[in-house]
Amino acid sequence: MRAYARTDIGKAREMNQDCYYVSKEINNMRLCILADGMGGYNGGEIASRLATASARQYIEERFEKIEPTTENIQNLIREAMNYANKVVYEKSRENEELDQMGTTLEICIMYGHKVFIGHIGDSRIYRIRRNIIRRITTDHSYVEELVKDGTITREEAFYHPKKNMLMKALRVHRKYRARYNCKRFC
Predict the structure, then answer these.
(1) Cα(98)–Cα(101) distance, rounded to whole angstroms?
(2) Beta strand 105-111 pairing with 114-120
(3) Model's pTM, two decimal places?
């Protein structure tokens, strides 16, 4: 399996608040992490760097110590996301200017021929297989909820004035137990 990461500042921002990490394959495992700081708040770039670094450290320190079953890998991803949330939350409490900082977070562990993901926010993970691109994650955004409810169409969501409003992100709450989407794909 191959993994790629790409970020873009976009047209509306002055600063790219994205941070990512793609490891080399070690012992049949590869780790990929992507975080996108919340643009309208102070410290989005700090939140994304902290989330990426803390999740990476958490997983790399523990992966070799677990039996790599589906359940254990999914639990490791959940725990890493909770740890990253805690780190970002605690940093936000240290400095008043960072009070509302937050970030999306995507974690992908490729082990053997399986892929395990953790997802929160509106950054996305795609799978490309046989030249077919498939979006794996669903945005945790206000407009995605409106589309699911049938209130607006997918086309209307693209131009909606609140299209960037997140319903879930790291640091919005002190704890996030069981709020992350963790899945396994083969």
Answers:
(1) 5
(2) antiparallel
(3) 0.85
pLDDT digits (tens, 9 = 90+) for 141-179: 888 899 899 999 988 988 898 887 888 887 755 555 434
In a domain, 42, yes or no: yes
Which residues in 1-36 are b (16+ Cβ under 10 Å) and which e? eeeeeeeeeeeeeeeebbbbbebeeeeebbbbbbbb
Q: Is residue 2 part of a domain?
A: no
CB-CB contact of 58 with 107 (8 Å) = no
Structural domain harbouring 134: 18-138+169-185
Residue 10 in any domain: the answer is no
